[in-house]
Amino acid sequence: MKGIVLKMLSVYVALNYRQVKREYRYFLRDNYFNRLYQVRYLLRDYFIKKHYKVIDYQGEFQNEITHVLPFAYWHYLNGTLEKTISCKGTNELYFFSPDHEERYAERRWDFTYNNYNFPNINHSIKKTFKKWIAPPLKEQYKNTLFVFDKPILIIANKYNIEWNQEPTNFLDIPTLDRIINLNKHKYQIIYNRPLPNHIVQDNSEILDLNEYPWLQRAHPEVILLNDLFTKFKSKVNSFNHLQLMVYANCDRFVSVHGGTAALASYFGGKNIILSNGGLESVFDEYTNYFPRLSNALILHAKTPDDVFSYLSEEF
């Protein structure tokens, strides 16, 4: 039956989404199948409404916070969430869960393949929000600990293998230098690029950009999130916990493609996302999906020049 339904959906997608390249259409097909898969839970979700749902996820971080976390929060509000299971360092993300288990020490990039338990887990032009409510991370973690004389501007960077190739989406040192020089007079800049020992990794190997020694030498006024983690280790449970607390006090972000951009989109304000390539652009998700995480203004920059244009116009 599953094979027949998938074939029928493939025909439907081919007829109705001719503008989408063939190699991307299976994302649309699987997204529709994910929705149909939820029919089996109709009685338990809308009529019986007892605690039954166990949400078990080991996939990539971006999919977790954009798709799985809102799915879990919907079940919590619906009164049907029993337990959540995820990777190390995720307890604070699932602050609402009645029973959260940090089971996995690594993430699997292929976890979502042929996994139809989560609505919207696949990239798509159109998504359903019937079982999707983004948890209020900003409200939950806003605090008086990370408050400074000037408003915060977070630069959320990464430097890792992308799509089994060399790094594509990242802020290099010359770009960082220009961003800092243009904005340090009005913002307290906090720089964040998690190191391998801070987060649970998948197949996207984290490389060394060598920017940390340069930042300490050239821009000592910039606060490094890694330094905050060392300083406040007794007050936070994990690096992710620290990120949530610092991000919750911020309304201005410059981030890059991937989970880095998705997390920064959870805290309102304005988020400039440097993203050159990726299915988020193909399916226009920076316009029709990311803003729903917190009603943030998402500014999609395809080049560093776009980043500076947005900084000048919006920051």
Terminal residue distance: 53 Å
Any low-confidence stretches, pLDDT <50, length ≥5? none
In CATH, the homologous superfamily of the largest domain goes by the name: Glycogen Phosphorylase B
The appropriate CATH architecture of the largest domain is 3-Layer(aba) Sandwich
Structural class, judged by helices and strands? Answer: alpha/beta
**Main sheet overview:** 6 strands, parallel
- Neighbour order of strands in the largest sheet: 6-5-4-7-8-9
Count of all domains? 2
CATH overall fold name of the largest domain: Rossmann fold
Overall geometry comes to globular
CATH class type of the largest domain = Alpha Beta
Instruction: Give me the strand/helix succession.
Output: HHHEHEEHEHEHEHHEHEHHEH
Beta-strand percentage? Answer: 5-15%
Question: Would you count the extended β strands for me?
Answer: 9
Name the helicity range: 25-40%
Rg: 20 Å
Overall pLDDT metric? 94
Number of helices: 13
Protein name: Glycosyltransferase family 61 protein
How would you describe this structure to a colleague?
By secondary structure, the protein is α/β, with parallel strands linked by helices. The chain has two domains: 2-126, no CATH class; 140-314, Glycogen Phosphorylase B (Rossmann fold, 3-Layer(aba) Sandwich). 38% of the residues lie in helices and 14% in strands. It has 13 helices and nine strands. It has helices at 2-16, 25-37, 42-48, 61-78, 137-141, 173-183, 211-218, 225-231, 239-248, 259-264, 279-282, 285-288, 304-314; strands at 53-56, 81-87, 100-104, 152-156, 188-192, 223-224, 252-256, 270-274, 297-301. The protein has a six-stranded parallel beta sheet with strand order 6-5-4-7-8-9. Strand 4, helix 6 and strand 5 (188-192) form a beta-alpha-beta unit. The protein is globular, with a radius of gyration of 20 Å. The mean pLDDT is 94.
